Structures are given as structure tokens and as C-alpha cells.
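Write out a record, fold above all:
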Amino acid sequence: MGIFWFIMSFFLPYLHLSVGNNCIIGFSVGMAGEVIVGDWVNISGLTAIHQFSIIGEHSMISGLSRVVKDIPPYITVGREPLSYVGLNLVGLKRRDFSLEKINELQDIYRVLFQEKRNTTFALEFIENSFEKTVERDKIIDFVKSSKRGIIKGFNY
């Protein structure tokens, strides 16, 4: 950690960055100032992340991505423009999320990203139709508190 801290202190004295626990950050990832990265995030190589972006916990960003919107927790994002491509199934299974919990998350994100609803109506539907759980509430709170807006679902 000593050499890493020295390099960060020497080259990036004005960069404000918050990286959670157990994150994997690939080769040549560029993060502008004020980026917040949640716990258990995997960011693949050559990804560029715009300033003030927030990356939700347990998410994965594919390589060569351009992040200009916030990324909600538990998902994998890719393509251009950056879009929802599914849950981070490998990461969630490695961290012992139950099949029931994974199915719940898939159902929530299906409403948010794959059905033809705007974000406000999707969140209202999720709040009214899904049992209150920690994960459901994290997703709702993340989307509601996003100042930059969140990534979109992929249109086939």
C-alpha cells in the first residue's frame, strides 16, 4: 500500500475518489474527480468514468466502457451507449446471494429497464408490487437519489 499511496499522492493530489471494499479495477481505468464506487464493484480495463458518477455495489462494468450516468447496484453494464445487460450473476453467486434473491433482483430490474415505463412510474410500481427488502430499497434509494440520472436499458 505504501507505494500505491505515494503514487496517488504524487500524481493525483486534487482527485477526490471513494472506492469501496473488495473492488477490482482493471488496467488503465480512468476516473475523473468525485467518483464514488460501492463495495464489490468490478471495473474492467480501459473504462472511462465521468466526474461525479456513482457506481452501485456489486456491479460490473465491461471493458472499454464510457460511464456518463450512474450505475445502480447488482448489475452488469456494457455496450455503447452504456446500458443494462443483466445482473452481475457471477459476482452475486460468488457472494452467496440465494437464487430467490437473484430472481427478485431480476424481476425488479426487468420493471426498471425492460418494460416500457419511465423511471418514475417504474419506481412506483416496484414500491407497490415488490416485498420490502434491503436490496429492493437500495435500488429504489439509489435511483431516486441519482443527480446525474442512471444508465438505460438496452433497446434491441
